């Protein structure tokens, strides 16, 4: 039996020895007390873990610092110099936000987050964070989004930003592009400064884990030595309620990512109130992380508590700390020392006696550990040296620390302005040499307080710059140093262009075929990173298992159940394929790490993330947005796309709208190809655009290619000799021109919908005397974007020759009404309606999906060939070109209102 992780019914092979141990323990309790016995037990458990005895860790420990004073390392810095530097940065950060909210501007900002975490960051900047010039290429540092004013303020002291830029916080265009500062860490908006977008709360956690994992992936595959690089992630305690924050912590423990440290700023406050007023968030998080297998370091109390704890021989103080809820601790942070004496220490005479030598002011100033530089340094040092586990540092702080008007108040997050009197008190607390007269003059002239700089030659600036020189340069900083790639020649795309002959091939298989060919390339082959969330076999990629293998840092220490099969599951330390299990969020984090490796590591890596299209932009759209912000590149493959194609799977698997979601992201280029030869041109161009070099983009472009492909086998024609490559890439090209006389129509279709248009063209010609031209629309999104861009250019260039939309030019002169159809909702093709030069009608799969055969589903949504025929005839009747009776006849003949009419139709393969 296992009870709370401990074996309780193992046979006692030496009862006498066991009895001796128990007697010894009993004596210690009797002679030294329960607290001493408890301490010894905790040390034994710690030692057992170090010796790999296999006893599980405790889920939580006392509400005190993990590292006792006697185990703190020597502090190597000048604490007084660093205190002054922190004061300068604190002041400038607060003034920056307050200035941004002066009357007539009022663009917002956040003061309190950085004030609570200043010591946490400054310990890192002065002693731990390695810059890009450090051996190995430097650390990756995820900075909490709301703390950005403090990071800008440090950069100002370092000479990286100007005072004028600080005054223009959150004013990015009105003074000229690049003359202001973005609100949060946004690499796309400040590409030489920020590396990681972090303000979408929760994504920092999961992205930092998979970044640390990707570092090990690069190391194990022999692409880059990342052994000297460390990933630091700063998060808030309120942020840990986001599912993504804790959702992947077991991955970090399972893969023993000791190159990862999380620093959670536990100021006990969310945006509008306590994180957990009736509980203890630090204890809750400790239990979560210990249970997941992390090394946990708590930094709860500052050094002034050490003497009190040393006198706590019977554990009454520790017990009081354990029993006091966070809501009370927040109250203590805003009350005076007399209140704290009565409320916290007054309930027990032993506690009251413990502080009788202290004044109320001394009690009021008893600090939290996250503000104590030496306590924080000890935690960082222990985290960096810890082996075999990721580390989380839980640092207790006060939100708005050092600003009397803000400290600890529930409304702190929303308080953005400081009055002159608030700032005078703040200045005095920081001991800054700014006179009342200078403050008042600045308010009169600018409406805000002045920034403070001690001078470029001051001892503080010399100190901080020397520390950064020793650590490899300023951070954060984003650099481009990846060597150009030699991309595959045209011949690698030849097979896709040949077509499939008499066979039917799904477009998903065509994409995978090209991936396999790319992976054989001597230059880019090893740089491809296939990523899938537990669906490699669904997408026909199991053939890659024996050669590419699935990445596992521990290798494969078991015999696979399918080991005797040719396509057996194979894992390897050097494996190339990232198999993320059932976690689209984790897969996206891997894609982001791989797609930005050209900047974080100076190594081009090419993510190829393939997934159920419904679980891409819908489930992880926020992560894709952050991927774009991080200037990552790569291929996202929305396989099993379409509302009716994934037969049998039902409502939540039926993607009818991902192109619409994709169009909201300016970095995403979406294509919905119908043919393998279209895929070859699109993917070749994508590879060249993202990883090639042009005069305009010598380092490639920061875009992401999203292809929706299908699991339905369809005939794949060979590429025509006169193929319109430009049309394929811009979004539309003509496939066939109808022959004969009679009313003429234009049928536009994308993806798996093209065979319906093709079949409708045949029926229209043979049964109704209507001639149809067919067009493959490879991208409704790109056509719409081009059209909007043309109109925007015309708006900004009056008096110059006007531009027209590509789709309007392409369709100009085409006869008859235009009918569009796809396996997506009607809003997808409706994007181009304004620019189609004629009557335009659309058929789409609007509504919830469901499980049935493809013919039944397409008849239900009225997007099948017969529905296209009836809608086309109706458009011709509306235009007066045919008798409306023909429409009634066709409607009755095809029964497009009745899915039972196609109950007997067979379909070919391609389920999930």
UniProtKB/TrEMBL annotation:
Enzyme class: oxidoreductase
Pfam families named among the record's database cross-references: PDH_E1_M, Transketolase_C_1, Transketolase_N
Residue ranges occupied by any Transketolase-like C-terminal domain in the UniProt entry: 731-864
Single GO molecular function: pyruvate dehydrogenase (acetyl-transferring) activity
EC number, UniProt record: 1.2.4.1
Record key words, sorted: Oxidoreductase, Pyruvate, Thiamine pyrophosphate
Protein origin, superkingdom: Bacteria
CDD domains linked: TPP_E1_EcPDC_like (cd02017)
Domain Transketolase N-terminal: 144-305
Database matches in InterPro entries: PDC_E1_N, PDH/Transketolase, PDH_E1, PDH_E1_M, THDP-binding, Transketo_C/PFOR_II, Transketolase-like_C_2, Transketolase_N
Presence of keyword Oxidoreductase: yes
Region forming the signal peptide: none
Catalytic activities: N(6)-[(R)-lipoyl]-L-lysyl-[protein] + pyruvate + H(+) = N(6)-[(R)-S(8)-acetyldihydrolipoyl]-L-lysyl-[protein] + CO2
Domain Pyruvate dehydrogenase E1 component middle: 490-713
Obligatory cofactor(s): thiamine diphosphate
Database matches in NCBIfam families: aceE (TIGR00759)
Function in brief: Component of the pyruvate dehydrogenase (PDH) complex, that catalyzes the overall conversion of pyruvate to acetyl-CoA and CO(2).
PANTHER family in alphabetical order: PYRUVATE DEHYDROGENASE E1 COMPONENT
Identification of the protein by name: Pyruvate dehydrogenase E1 component
Gene coding for it: aceE
């Amino acid at each position: 039996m296992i009870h709370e992780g401990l074996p309780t019914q193992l046979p006692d092979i030496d009862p006498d020895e066991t009895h001796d141990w128990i007697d010894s323990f009993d004596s210690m309790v009797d002679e030294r007390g329960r607290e001493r016995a408890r301490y010894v037990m905790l040390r034994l458990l710690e030692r057992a873990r170090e010796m790999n005895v296999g006893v599980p860790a405790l889920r939580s420990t006392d509400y005190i610092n993990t590292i006792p004073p006697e185990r703190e390392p020597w502090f190597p810095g000048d604490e007084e110099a660093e205190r002054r530097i922190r004061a300068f940065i604190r002041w400038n950060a607060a003034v920056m936000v307050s200035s941004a909210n002066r009357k007539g501007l009022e663009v917002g900002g956040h003061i309190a987050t950085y004030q609570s975490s200043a010591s946490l960051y400054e310990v890192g900047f002065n002693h731990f964070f390695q810059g890009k010039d450090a051996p190995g290429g430097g650390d990756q540092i995820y900075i909490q989004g709301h703390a950005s004013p403090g990071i800008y303020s440090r950069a100002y002291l370092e000479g990286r930003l100007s005072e004028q830029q600080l005054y223009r916080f959150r004013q990015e265009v009105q003074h000229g592009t690049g003359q202001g500062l973005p609100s949060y860490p946004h690499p796309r908006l400040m590409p030489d400064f920020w590396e990681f977008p972090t303000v979408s709360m929760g994504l920092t956690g999961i992205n930092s884990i998979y970044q640390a994992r990707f570092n090990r992936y690069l190391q194990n595959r022999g692409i880059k030595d990342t052994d000297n690089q460390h990933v630091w992630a700063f998060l808030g305690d309120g942020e840990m309620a986001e599912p993504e924050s804790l959702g992947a912590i077991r991955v970090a423990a399972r893969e023993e990512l000791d190159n990862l440290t999380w620093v959670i700023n536990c100021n006990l406050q969310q945006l509008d109130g306590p994180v957990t007023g009736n509980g203890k968030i630090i204890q809750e998080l400790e239990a979560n992380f210990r249970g997941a297998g992390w090394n946990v370091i708590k930094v709860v109390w500052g050094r002034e508590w050490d003497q009190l704890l040393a006198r706590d021989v019977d554990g009454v103080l520790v017990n009081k700390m354990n029993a006091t809820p966070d809501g009370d601790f927040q109250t203590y942070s805003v009350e005076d020392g007399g209140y704290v004496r009565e409320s916290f220490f007054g309930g027990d005479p032993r506690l009251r006696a413990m502080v009788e030598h202290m004044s109320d002011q001394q009690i009021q100033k008893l600090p939290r550990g996250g503000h104590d530089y030496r306590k924080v340094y000890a935690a960082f040092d222990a985290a960096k040296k810890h082996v075999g586990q990721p580390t989380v540092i839980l640092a207790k702080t006060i939100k708005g620390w050092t600003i009397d008007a803000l400290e600890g108040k529930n409304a702190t997050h929303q308080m953005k302005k400081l009055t002159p009197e608030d700032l005078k008190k703040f200045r005095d607390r920081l001991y800054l040499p700014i006179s009342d007269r200078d403050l008042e003059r600045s308010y009169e002239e600018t409406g805000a307080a002045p920034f403070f700089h001690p001078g470029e030659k001051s001892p503080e600036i010399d100190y901080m710059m020397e520390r950064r020189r020793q650590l490899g340069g300023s951070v954060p900083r984003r650099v481009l140093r990846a060597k150009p790639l030699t991309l595959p020649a045209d011949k690698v795309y030849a097979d896709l262009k040949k077509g499939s002959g008499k066979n039917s091939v799904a477009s998903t298989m065509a994409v995978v075929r090209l991936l396999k060919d790319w992976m054989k390339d001597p230059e880019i082959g090893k740089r491809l990173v296939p990523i899938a969330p537990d669906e490699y076999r669904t997408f026909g990629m199991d053939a890659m298992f024996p050669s590419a293998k699935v990445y596992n840092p521990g290798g494969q220490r078991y015999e696979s159940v399918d080991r005797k099969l040719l396509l057996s599951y194979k894992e390897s330390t050097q494996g190339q394929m990232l198999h993320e299990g059932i976690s689209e969020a984790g897969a996206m984090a891997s894609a982001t790490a791989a797609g930005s490796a050209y900047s974080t590591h100076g190594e081009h890596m090419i993510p190829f993330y393939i997934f159920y299209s419904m679980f891409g932009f819908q489930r992880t759209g926020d992560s894709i947005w952050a991927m774009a912000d991080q200037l990552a590149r790569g291929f996202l493959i929305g396989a099993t796309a379409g509302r009716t194609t994934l037969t049998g799977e039902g409502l939540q698997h039926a993607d009818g709208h991902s192109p619409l979601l994709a169009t909201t992201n300016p970095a995403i280029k979406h294509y919905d190809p119908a043919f393998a030869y279209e895929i070859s041109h699109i993917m070749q161009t994508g590879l060249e655009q993202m990883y090639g070099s042009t005069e305009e983009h010598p380092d490639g472009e920061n875009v992401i290619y999203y292809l929706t492909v299908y699991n339905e086998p369809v005939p794949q024609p060979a590429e025509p000799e006169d193929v319109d490559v430009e049309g394929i890439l811009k979004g539309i090209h003509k496939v066939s021109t109808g022959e004969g006389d009679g009313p003429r129509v234009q049928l536009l279709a994308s993806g798996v919908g093209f065979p319906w248009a093709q079949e409708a063209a045949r029926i229209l010609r043979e049964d109704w005397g209507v001639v149809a031209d067919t067009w493959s629309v490879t991208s409704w999104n790109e056509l719409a974007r081009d059209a909007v861009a043309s109109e925007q250019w015309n708006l900004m260039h009056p008096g110059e020759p006007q531009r027209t939309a590509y789709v309007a030019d392409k369709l100009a002169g085409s006869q008859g009404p235009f009918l569009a159809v796809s396996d997506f909702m009607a809003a997808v093709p409706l994007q181009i309606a304004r620019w189609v030069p004629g009557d335009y009608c659309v058929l789409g799969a609007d509504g919830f999906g469901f499980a049935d055969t493809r013919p039944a589903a397409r008849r239900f949504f009225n997007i099948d060939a017969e529905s296209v025929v009836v809608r086309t005839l109706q458009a011709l009747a509306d235009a007066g070109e045919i008798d409306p009776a023909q429409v009634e006849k066709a409607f009755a003949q095809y029964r497009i209102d009745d899915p039972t009419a196609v109950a007997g139709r067979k379909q070919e393969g391609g389920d999930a």
